[in-house]
């Protein structure tokens, strides 16, 4: 066998063996996603408005829709029924013992309202609202929070970015502000003079109990 | 969170444990007066045949373990579909949480998805948006097995204003620790080709909440996994079957279940679960955002309110510790409310960003105990007290409460959730 024939034979043999994929190579798995498929799933909306669809909705249309589709859980004016989320009010409450975290008092961006309603509401019938309906509900919630007048019509063109509390959010800074928690040698002996019990869980006694069911007795706030 | 409410009726805690606390304590070394009938009399299980090998094609725990189950705290949430159940930490040992006992948090109920109908898409700022079937996903090279804890950011969130729930299942049970099988998310992102402008990814679930979270691209390309198995078998439906995201050391909400899509972008999406929720409201009215990492934390699981001491003499204190920053290096335990500490024995596998198990063998003479544990990780972080945390954050944060837990053990062996000075 000539040298070149031998080389060809080796190449042919190698081609038959499984080849381990190297990290830099494309594996070739999956297929290209079609534009229609991306459009069906990529419904997210960003604070800068990227992702907002064409359409518009008024406060008054939103109010009618809200009473039909939302008020059974969120209350007629977004005040919340039972433990369902309160959507309006709470301004000035964030430093208090009972902060009310609503769209108007807490949420940083308007886009989150549109995105979440369109994505996950009404609860149990997600992604059933049209862009116009979602704009209208967003407009109504803005109006309930005194952010727009009652004749306001919301669309992609006039979609506001920031909500009032946006300026009060900042990125995680635990590593600098809480650097006292990185301790070289935590105390091991005689760390305090005396120890007193300051609080008992049984005073509140809200632990679930299989034997009894005091559903009428419950604290007023839960986990989110 | 609410201010403490005094109920008009107190009740004896009974969490399904026979004689929880207040039981007659067994002396350290009991002398038998009469022969034990369990030994001298023939028992039915010794005489008669038991069930055949395949009576239960999928095995279940002994009927004598029926109280070891996930539990809910119904008043916490408005509906059962958007709610949480808690891992029975007090009844577990070792480091691995059994699949059926891993706590569950849903926002739109449990999606039941035929894997043949599941699709996984990569889109956004990539050279080529791609769609994978589950079969494609499992053919991706570079499969790994990794043990990680998953802790909900709201674990212990009910305790910010003071001791509230009696039992580590409820105070600390929004955590589990399993071994995942999957492929690094990086492999799928590389396959699509991430644009140099990409800075963040958005992970999205296929459930009725279409759960979404923004994750820095750096983390996505580092240690995130796309996983289809836990503890050697397919993911449980309530844990995201057929596919979930694994985001080691970071808050559980980001570990999107029923993972259907990862989008690449150049800024975070400010979704509901990273603005309205999972941000930390501080005492000054401002809020931290993007507090992804779960700090070092630990809890004594035995004894605890659901697992009282039953005997004087030799006893084993047990607990778990974990840190999103790395590996647990040391756990100290105090029996006198934090005055004096001793270093516990970390036993068994101890992986980064996974639960570690610790023990202290001790003799109990019936005195009152105030049990605490304090975790330290390899970044040098030391688990703070609850008061230290409140000093920096106030009491309105809800999330990221990793303060030191205290159990008061009374002379009768019963235990209660308390706070100490």
UniProtKB/TrEMBL annotation, chain A:
Q: Which residues lie in Basic and acidic residues bias regions? A: 202-218
Q: Which UniProt keywords apply?
A: Heme, Iron, Metal-binding, Signal
In this chain, the stretch annotated as Disordered covers: 202-224
User: Which one of the record's GO molecular function terms can you name?
Assistant: heme binding
Q: Which domain of life is it from?
A: Bacteria
Q: What is this protein called?
A: Cytochrome c
> For this UniProt entry, which residues form the secretion signal?
1-23
Task: Give all residue intervals belonging to the Cytochrome c domain.
Answer: 57-145
UniProt-listed Gene3D superfamilies? Cytochrome c-like domain
Automatic annotation (TrEMBL), chain B:
InterPro entries, from UniProt?
Ig_E-set (IPR014756), MoCF_OxRdtse_dimer (IPR005066), Mopterin_OxRdtase_euk (IPR008335), OxRdtase_Mopterin-bd_dom (IPR000572), OxRdtase_Mopterin-bd_sf (IPR036374), Sulfite_DH_SoxC (IPR030835), TAT_signal (IPR006311)
Q: Which GO terms describe its biological process?
A: sulfur compound metabolic process
Keywords in alphabetical order: Metal-binding, Molybdenum, Oxidoreductase, Signal
Cofactor dependence:
Mo-molybdopterin
Molecular function, one GO term? molybdenum ion binding
Residue span(s) of domain Moybdenum cofactor oxidoreductase dimerisation:
292-405
Which EC main class describes this enzyme?
oxidoreductase
Leader sequence residues = 1-30
Keyword match Metal-binding: yes
Output the PROSITE patterns linked to this UniProt entry: TAT
Q: Which ranges carry the Oxidoreductase molybdopterin-binding domain?
A: 109-269
Q: What is its EC number?
A: 1.8.2.1
- The molecule here is called Sulfite dehydrogenase
Where does this protein come from, organism-wise? Answer: Hansschlegelia zhihuaiae
Q: Which gene encodes it?
A: soxC
């Amino acid at each position: 066998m000539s040298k070149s024939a031998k080389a060809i034979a080796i190449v042919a043999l190698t081609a038959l063996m499984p080849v381990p994929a190297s990290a830099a190579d494309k594996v070739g798995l999956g297929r290209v996603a079609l534009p229609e498929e991306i459009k069906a799933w990529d419904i997210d909306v960003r604070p800068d408005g990227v992702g907002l669809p064409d359409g518009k909705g008024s406060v008054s249309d939103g109010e009618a829709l809200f009473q039909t589709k939302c008020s059974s859980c969120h209350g007629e004016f977004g005040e919340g029924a039972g433990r369902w989320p309160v959507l309006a009010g709470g301004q000035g409450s964030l430093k208090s013992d009972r902060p009310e975290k609503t769209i108007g008092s807490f949420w940083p961006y308007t886009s989150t309202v549109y995105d979440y309603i369109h994505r996950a509401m009404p609860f149990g019938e997600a992604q059933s609202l049209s862009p116009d309906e979602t704009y209208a509900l967003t407009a109504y919630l803005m109006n309930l929070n005194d952010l727009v007048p009652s004749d306001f019509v919301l669309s992609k063109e006039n979609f506001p970015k920031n909500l009032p509390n946006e300026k009060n959010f900042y990125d995680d800074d635990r590593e600098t502000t809480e650097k006292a928690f990185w301790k070289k040698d935590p105390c091991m002996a005689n760390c305090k003079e005396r120890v007193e019990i300051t609080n008992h869980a049984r005073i509140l006694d809200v632990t679930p109990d299989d034997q009894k069911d005091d559903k009428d007795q419950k604290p007023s706030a839960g986990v989110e | 969170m609410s201010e403490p409410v005094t109920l008009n009726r107190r009740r004896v805690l009974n969490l399904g444990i026979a004689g929880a606390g207040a039981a007659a304590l067994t002396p350290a070394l009991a002398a038998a007066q009469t022969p034990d009938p369990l030994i001298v009399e023939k028992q039915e299980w010794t005489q008669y045949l038991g069930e055949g090998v395949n009576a239960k094609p999928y095995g279940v725990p002994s009927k004598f373990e029926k109280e070891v189950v996930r539990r809910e705290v119904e008043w916490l949430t408005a509906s059962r579909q958007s709610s949480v159940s808690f891992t029975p930490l007090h009844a577990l040992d070792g480091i691995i949480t059994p699949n059926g006992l891993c706590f569950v948090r849903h926002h739109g109920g449990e999606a039941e998805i035929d894997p043949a109908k599941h699709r996984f898409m990569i889109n956004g700022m990539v050279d080529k948006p791609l769609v994978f079937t589950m079969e494609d996903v499992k053919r991706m090279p570079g499969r790994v097995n990794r043990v990680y804890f998953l802790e909900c950011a709201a674990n212990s969130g009910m305790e910010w204003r003071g001791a509230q729930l009696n039992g580590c299942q409820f105070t600390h049970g929004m955590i589990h620790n399993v071994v995942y099988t999957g492929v690094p998310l990086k492999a799928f992102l590389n396959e699509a080709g991430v644009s140099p402008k990409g800075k963040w990814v958005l992970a999205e679930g296929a459930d009725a909440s279409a759960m979404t979270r923004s994750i820095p691209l750096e983390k996505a390309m580092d240690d995130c996994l796309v996983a289809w198995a836990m503890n050697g078998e397919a993911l449980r439906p309530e844990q995201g079957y057929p596919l979930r995201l694994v985001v080691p050391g970071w808050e559980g909400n980001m570990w999107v279940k029923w993972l259907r899509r990862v989008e690449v972008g150049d800024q975070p999406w400010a979704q509901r679960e990273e603005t309205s929720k999972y941000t930390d409201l501080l005492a000054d009215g401002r809020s931290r955002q993007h507090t992804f990492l779960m700090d070092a934390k630990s809890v004594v699981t035995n004894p605890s309110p659901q697992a009282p001491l039953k005997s004087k003499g030799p006893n084993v204190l047990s607990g778990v510790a974990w840190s999103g920053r790395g590996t647990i290096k040391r756990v100290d335990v105090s029996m006198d409310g934090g005055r004096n500490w001793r270093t516990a024995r970390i036993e068994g596998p101890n992986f980064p960003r996974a639960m570690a198990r610790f023990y202290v063998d001790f003799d109990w003479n019936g005195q009152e105990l105030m049990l605490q544990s304090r975790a330290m990780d390899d970044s040098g972080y030391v688990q703070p007290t609850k008061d230290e945390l409140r000093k920096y954050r106030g009491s309105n944060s809800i999330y990221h409460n990793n303060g030191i837990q205290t159990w008061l053990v009374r002379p009768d062996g019963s235990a209660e959730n308390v706070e100490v000075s």
